[in-house]
């Protein structure tokens, strides 16, 4: 089956980036009939999908699209795959202890085996794949991924499973370059660069998320390159195949890690450029609408469906209560098997002990402790706390002055409109607010404190219950556990008890600020004032099974979990007062300023792994990417000055088609990290590195075609391949695991910042 088009690129439009392909002063030049291929003929709507534009004035042989040749490309890909498999699998089980982030992701995989719900900052697909590898390896879910692997855990198989994604990078690199119409020797060189990069190799040898992410990123690039290569055959079966493959790849990469959305951004920008070219080429609105509809389905609906499907599977597998329960609302927790919320009293009565959760994502449970506010009223702090704690317990009572025996009097349930007081169980202080003092952070709101006692007749301790909604069928006006959303309006000021995930300073232990909000006009303010009873204890009321009363919503759970993932991800901020040898800043990545030890112990006898890339490939590819804007500016100046012998026919289009995807992919996968406040590591550069390596080969191929003959081109490719292999082998002991004293491995520290031999921060 031919997976490449064989038509000539000189019939395509000159895509944007240099000048508009058509202007009123230079009408389209009619090409000779014998140079027009079948793809240039009018389609059923009376026009070509991408009408031909004025070609640059030059002489020479036009660029041709590559054709897949099974007899040539098949053996090359097979050889490259075998070679990549050797580098990824050689001595992969050498270290029989949990290494680096295997302690995290291996544990997450075990949660799928145990089916216990957990929380993490990443989407679930890559972790579900790790869980699958553990299941196939016979893991029973009891190992906690600390220390040495027990005999019943086949860690070698688990690592090999993950390494398969790293092995797949080599054939994808070859196919991508073939789709970008590079010479086959350049395609093979790109695959060799991927194979013999020490950084990509060492990261594929452990149970980590990075290899599935890299594989799906590479698949996305290969798919969009294939679609670009076939774009002149709009709405053909092959065109649809590549478009849908692109959408599926985007769904898979974004479901592995959120950094995969950078690949979505790349394809999105490519699509915008496509529609811009349709606009300036006067494509009829009807056909433009067809193109838009096709891309909306393939590049929006399909990836979104895959992303949501991964979460659906995630929820279906993790159906038991686990360590991640507290990140989800009670309506989700109660449906988990073994959840303590599943069986408890339903109707809330006076004298009941409650834990009350804010419905604003990231806020937590209403909380108090013995510490006081340093300013304002200097009364007892009231906060929201995300973890389960005895200081989250409150007792709902009648306002002071209303005599009521909570142990012998008939049970009285709390109803909509009742005025109540809340007493903190441990400190006996009452939930209190007043006009005299503003909230410490959100100064537009009133301060909320713990003050007084249950027998103090203070109207500022009184709150009116306002039921906002009832999700169960028991809509009887009573306050219910789990199923009732309600507000607490302060009786004295009319403000609403609110928590909007605003953190207090260090004196408040970074817990969430609780305020009394005077207005709740915006949707977020309205949500911040909504509360729900999560836990309910009353010895006078028999517990009941609440699960039949709670209605589940996949969309609601999906959105809530993604919001909690975002909050957790944003909370991963570096501590500027402490040095962490694992962390590094984005500016240092392309030039390998700070490689990383992958384990803490670096003594003789320890199997030592060092995350250092192939310096030759990293440094040269980084320079190539950094200097590319200058190259682009040079070509632009040549174009403006009408230097006619710069490009051969089709060469300019070929150059732009490849450069915009490869350099654009590098920029989109690298530059956004400068805007992120979260902690960053060297391995975050690996997706950008993949684009950089292919872009380096693209530039080598571009220069060879322009400047050298066939013999010299082969020599240049051979020199690059030998150099890459030589540097890889030089650092291979640190890639495959070095046991001896590290000082016997001489001449490996190529920069003074490398900590191969010593680390001044290690005690």
Architecture overview:
- Residues 1-62 have low confidence and may be disordered.
- Helix 5 (169-179) packs antiparallel against helix 6.
- The two termini are 60 Å apart.
- The relative contact order is 0.12.
- The chain has helices at residues 70-89, 102-114, 125-136, 155-167, 169-179, 184-195, 198-203, 210-229, 237-254, 261-280, 285-317, 330-333, 523-528, 554-570, 615-640, 651-670, 686-707, 710-736; strands spanning 343-344, 353-358, 365-372, 380-385, 394-397, 419-424, 430-438, 446-451, 463-470, 484-490, 496-498, 512-513, 515-517, 531-537, 544-545, 596-597, 610-611.
- Strands 3, 4, 7, 8, 11, 12 and 13 form a seven-stranded antiparallel sheet that branches.
- The protein has 18 helices and 17 strands.
- It is elongated.
- The longest helix has 33 residues, at 285-317.
- Strand 7 (430-438) and strand 8 (446-451) form a beta hairpin.
- With 763 residues, it is of the alpha+beta class.
Strand and helix map with partners:
Layout: H1 70-89, H2 102-114, H3 125-136, H4 155-167, H5 169-179, H6 184-195, H7 198-203, H8 210-229, H9 237-254, H10 261-280, H11 285-317, H12 330-333, E1 343-344, E2 353-358, E3 365-372, E4 380-385, E5 394-397, E6 419-424, E7 430-438, E8 446-451, E9 463-470, E10 484-490, E11 496-498, E12 512-513, E13 515-517, H13 523-528, E14 531-537, E15 544-545, H14 554-570, E16 596-597, E17 610-611, H15 615-640, H16 651-670, H17 686-707, H18 710-736
Antiparallel strand pairs: 1-15, 2-5, 2-14, 3-4, 4-8, 4-12, 5-6, 6-9, 7-8, 8-13, 9-10, 10-14, 11-13, 16-17
């Amino acid at each position: 089956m031919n997976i490449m088009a064989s038509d000539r690129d000189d019939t395509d439009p000159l895509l944007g980036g240099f000048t508009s392909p058509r202007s009123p002063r230079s009408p389209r030049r009619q090409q000779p009939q014998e140079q027009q291929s079948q793809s240039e003929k009018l389609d059923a709507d009376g026009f070509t999908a991408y009408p031909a534009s004025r070609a640059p004035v030059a002489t020479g042989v036009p660029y041709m699209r590559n054709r897949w040749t099974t007899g040539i490309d098949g053996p090359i890909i097979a050889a490259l795959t075998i070679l990549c498999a050797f580098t990824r699998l050689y001595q992969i089980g050498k270290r029989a202890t949990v290494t680096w982030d295997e302690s995290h992701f291996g544990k997450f995989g075990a949660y799928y085996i145990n089916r216990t719900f957990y929380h993490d900052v990443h989407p679930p697909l890559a972790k579900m794949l790790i869980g699958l590898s553990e299941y196939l390896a016979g893991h029973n879910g009891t190992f906690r991924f600390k220390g040495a692997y027990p005999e019943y855990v086949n860690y070698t198989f688990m690592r090999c499973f993950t390494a398969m994604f790293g092995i797949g990078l080599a054939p994808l690199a070859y196919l991508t370059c073939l789709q970008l119409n590079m010479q086959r020797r350049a395609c093979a060189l790109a695959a060799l660069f991927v194979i013999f990069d020490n950084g990509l190799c060492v990261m594929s040898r452990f149970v980590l998320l990075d290899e599935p992410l890299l594989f799906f990123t590479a698949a996305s690039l290969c798919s969009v390159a294939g679609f670009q290569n076939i774009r002149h055959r709009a709405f053909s079966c092959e065109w649809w195949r590549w478009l849908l493959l692109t959408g599926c790849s985007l769904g898979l990469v974004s479901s592995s890690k959120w950094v995969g959305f950078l690949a979505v951004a790349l394809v999105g920008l490519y699509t915008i450029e496509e529609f811009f070219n349709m606009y300036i080429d006067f494509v009829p609105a009807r056909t433009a609408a067809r193109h838009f509809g096709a891309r909306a389905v393939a590049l929006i609906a399909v990836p979104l469906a895959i992303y949501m499907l991964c979460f659906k599977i995630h929820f279906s597998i993790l159906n038991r209560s686990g360590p991640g329960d507290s990140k989800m609302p009670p309506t989700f927790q109660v449906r988990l098997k073994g959840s303590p919320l599943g069986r408890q009293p339903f109707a809330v009565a006076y004298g009941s002990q409650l834990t009350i959760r804010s419905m604003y994502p990231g806020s937590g449970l209403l909380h108090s402790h013995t510490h006081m506010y340093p300013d304002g009223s200097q009364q007892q702090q009231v906060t929201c706390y995300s973890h389960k704690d005895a200081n989250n317990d409150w007792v709902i009572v009648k306002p002071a002055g209303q005599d009521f025996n909570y142990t012998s009097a008939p049970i009285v349930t709390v109803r909509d409109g009742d005025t109540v007081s809340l007493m903190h169980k441990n400190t006996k202080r009452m939930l209190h607010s007043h006009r005299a003092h503003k909230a410490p952070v959100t100064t537009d709101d009133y301060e909320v404190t713990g003050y007084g006692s249950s027998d103090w007749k203070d109207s500022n301790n009184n709150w009116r219950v306002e039921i906002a909604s009832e999700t169960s069928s028991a809509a009887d006006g009573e306050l219910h556990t789990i199923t009732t959303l309600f507000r607490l309006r302060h009786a004295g000021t009319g403000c609403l008890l609110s928590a909007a995930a605003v953190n207090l300073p260090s004196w408040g232990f970074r817990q969430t600020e609780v305020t009394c909000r005077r207005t709740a006009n915006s949707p977020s303010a309205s949500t911040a004032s909504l509360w729900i009873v999560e836990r309910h204890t009353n010895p006078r009321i028999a517990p009941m099974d609440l699960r039949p009363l709670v209605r589940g919503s996949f969309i609601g759970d999906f959105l809530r979990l993604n919001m909690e993932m975002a909050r957790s991800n944003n909370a991963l901020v570096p501590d500027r007062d402490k040095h962490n040898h694992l962390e590094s800043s984005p500016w240092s990545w392309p030039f390998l300023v700070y490689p990383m030890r992958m384990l803490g112990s670096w003594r003789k006898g320890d199997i030592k792994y060092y995350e250092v890339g192939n310096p030759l490939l990293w440094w040269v590819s980084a320079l190539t990417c950094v200097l590319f804007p200058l190259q682009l500016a040079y070509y632009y100046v040549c174009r403006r000055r009408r230097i006619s012998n710069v490009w051969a026919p089709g060469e300019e289009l070929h150059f732009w088609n490849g450069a915009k995807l490869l350099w654009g992919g590098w920029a989109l996968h690298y530059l956004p990290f400068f805007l992120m406040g979260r902690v960053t590591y060297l391995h975050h550069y690996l997706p950008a590195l993949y684009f950089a390596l292919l872009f380096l080969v693209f530039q080598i191929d571009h220069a060879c075609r322009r400047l050298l003959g066939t013999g010299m081109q082969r020599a240049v490719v051979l020199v690059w391949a030998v150099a890459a292999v030589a540097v890889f082998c030089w650092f291979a002991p640190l890639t495959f695991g070095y046991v001896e004293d590290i000082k016997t491995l001489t001449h490996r520290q190529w920069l003074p910042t490398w900590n191969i031999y010593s680390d001044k921060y290690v005690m």
